[in-house]
Specification:
By secondary structure, this protein is of the alpha/beta class. It has 19 helices and 13 strands. The strands form 2 sheets. Strands 3-2-1-4-5-6-7 form a 7-stranded parallel sheet, with helices on both faces. Strands 10-9-8-11-12-13 form a 6-stranded parallel sheet, sandwiched between helices. α15 links the parallel β12 and β13. α11 crosses α16.
Length: 450
């Protein structure tokens, strides 16, 4: 059995999006001859709900409180960057009110952010993890080290181990490092200027760089022509087998339904938070237009909503307040029940042509037709390639309404399509973990030959 050190900030029992992928890899890697050695972060209050399989691996815990801030932001859950200017805590801002001029206060604040949050706000955690990782490397032979980001400061740990011990390194990038940012402007503007240099450090020193979408793979190959394309690989996020079993059970418990007409209530559901560019206002306007055409279409939101979107007021102004429901955050199991009961699922992925949200793979497990509001790129390609629904790259209510109307007309045809099973097979988590194991084997054999 070979050993791979996995250095990860978020890991089960955390339910953050960034914890799902490394957690799945760690759970499945032993089936392919790789034993994970875990150096992971953990939020306070989660020690009592640790899954048995995680405890069996005897992880080394580096508390997230050691990061220098209360906890490192898992940028993959939100904006994929190092926070936003709006996220600065009032206490941090007040620290600089003693400076005489606004320009000096801003200079001091930027300098502090640069020193404490470069390459991102988790750099303090990475420093603490580096100490633990060195100790683990001395205690037992390691055949490879795996790091995943964001937060991308985690890769500093592997960079240190590679230089100090020569351990082969697989860098798993779930979001871009220096190009195609998602969200508001960076909180650490000086540090953002160094991100291209930091990205070069990662790709030039890692033995293999794994990207989680074809778009990101193409982008990195183009951006680094000095490196062979074999330095890069693509392994999508995929579907979790345990989640698939849970969802299959929920779907099996649903009572049989007769085909719906346009007079029957048809629910378009968006699961997940609405923030930054994920504004459903144009979708709600499109729903209002389709209701005028006789469709009894309803919108349901599960998850937090940016109050600036003013969705209840918009629905009231359009005269469809009774057809728009914002239910806030609910437990994962309840969200899955709601998704199973819905007729259509909505995916909002604006301005991010490279990334594929983890929610898309979750939607694949339900087999419900998908309306994807997304630009040409990785997300749109999957929906179109597998025939999972309709894609619209336009925020005009008319264009969205046209696509939504086509989706309504094709609803029964899409629900019975064999494409769902093909997508579930291609994105099976166990199969994708096998691809990761093959890459680990490749880089560890290269070290043996050297």
């Amino acid at each position: 059995m070979r050993h791979v050190l996995m250095v990860v900030t978020r890991f089960p029992p955390s339910n953050r999006v960034g914890a799902l992928r490394p957690g799945r890899f760690a759970r499945k890697l032993p089936e392919f001859g790789w034993q994970p050695v875990l150096c992971i972060g953990r939020e306070s209050g989660l020690d009592d709900i640790v899954p048995e399989w995680v405890s069996t691996l005897k992880p080394t815990i580096v508390p997230l409180a050691e990061s220098g801030r209360s906890a490192p932001a898992d940028e993959s859950d939100k904006d994929g960057g190092s926070g936003t200017a709006a996220s600065s805590a009032p206490a941090n801002r007040s620290r600089w009110t003693m400076w005489p001029l606004p320009q000096l206060r801003q200079f001091a604040q930027h300098a502090s952010q640069f020193l404490q949050e470069t390459p991102d706000s988790s750099v303090g955690w990475a420093r603490a993890a580096r100490v633990q990782a060195r100790a683990l490397a001395r205690q037992q032979p390691l055949d490879a080290v795996y790091t995943t980001g964001p937060p991308h400061s985690t890769h500093l740990v592997a960079l240190d181990l590679k230089r100090r011990f020569g351990i082969p390194w697989l860098a798993d990038l779930r979001d871009p490092v220096s190009r195609h940012p998602w969200g508001a402007r960076p909180r650490n503007p000086w540090g953002a200027l160094l991100k291209p240099r930091y990205e070069r450090q990662i790709v030039q020193n890692a033995d293999v760089v794994v990207l989680n979408s074809p778009g990101m793979y193409d982008d990195f190959v183009r951006a680094h022509p000095e490196l062979p394309a074999s330095r890069f690989a693509c392994i999508p996020n995929g579907c979790d087998d345990e989640m698939q079993q849970t969802i299959q059970g929920i779907l099996a418990d649903l009572p049989p339904q007769a085909p719906k007409t346009r007079k029957d209530p048809i629910v378009l559901l968006h699961p997940g938070s609405l923030y930054h560019g994920r504004d459903p206002s144009h979708v709600i306007r499109a729903i209002a237009q389709l209701r005028q055409q006789g469709w009894n279409l309803r919108f349901e939101q599960l998850g937090d909503v940016n109050p600036e979107f003013k969705l209840p007021r918009l629905a009231a102004d359009l005269g469809i307040a009774d057809a728009v429901a914002c239910r806030g955050s609910v437990p994962r199991l309840e969200a899955h029940r709601r998704m199973a009961q819905a007729d259509l699922l909505l995916l909002l992925q604006p301005g991010t042509p490279l990334q594929i949200p983890a929610k898309l793979y979750e939607m694949v497990l339900f087999g419900k037709p998908i309306l994807a509001v997304a630009p040409p790129g990785s997300t749109a390609s999957i929906v179109e390639q597998y025939g999972l629904g309709e894609v619209v790259d336009n925020t005009s209510p008319e264009e969205i309404g046209t696509s939504l109307n086509r989706l309504l007309q094709r609803r029964e045809e899409l629900e019975t399509s064999p494409s769902w099973e093909r997508a579930r097979r291609d994105f099976d988590g166990t199969h994708l973990t096998g691809e990761l194991a093959e890459l680990l084997e490749r880089i560890s054999q290269r070290r043996t030959k050297e």
